[in-house]
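Journal club side-thread
Mid-discussion, someone asked how the predicted structure for our own chain would compare to the paper's figures. Pasting it here so we can look after the session.
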Amino acid sequence: MKEQSRVNKQAWEYRAYEFWEKRDGTPSEYAAIIKQEPAACLKKHRHYFENVAGKTIANICGSNGRKAVPLALLGADVTVFDISEENATYALELAHYAETKIEYIVGDIYAIDLTRYSDTFDILYLEGGILHYFADLERFLQILFTILKPGGQLILSDFHPVGRWIDADLTYRPRYFDQALQTGDLAYKTHFTDQEQADFPDVAVRYFTLSEILNGVLATRFTLQQFEEHRGWNGENIPAEFTLLATKPIEGSNL
């Protein structure tokens, strides 16, 4: 296992289940909410999944199943790939209480069995801040390309590289072109007391510029279809997130 992956696995297996219960409720409580309107749980991406019944979907770094379970309820055959056993425990319980089924593969994304999963999935769905956990972006994107079916669709939503360095008070931190691997806080650390936070392990992250992401997708031979930028959660006039839509060409076609 790569050192970055080892560090992040250790971090994401530290009190993750407890965090999901703090934020979303118990799996049974959260399942009851999801079952009321599964499509609503996909939020700004719901229009990409209007006809997913029977589709095979890989939810990369799918954490606690908050997207995988709604997709399964909409009729998709969903496989989650994630590094955290605690995430898996919550997600599988969530699927159980939602009366649906997902497959959950725990392990390093770099170590996905490419023989088994080559050309397998109709859709790859990544959302919520993924790329910074993979310093070897070229290799990561090549893995995605390999497991996607020809003609399949990549839906990649992540933090906007510009907005990442603009604080809530609109102060800009000039770190956009930094390329070094660095330590950072675990995403849910602030949901615990100051005393508890002292014991939290750090994550290892590498941030990318927008050109690195777009050029990486193109160099991997994906066909870029659409790129959307999204405001902050409270409508701030800054690019907080983006959604990238790309497809894997069918061999011999001009698509």
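Post-session note: The chain has a mean pLDDT of 95.
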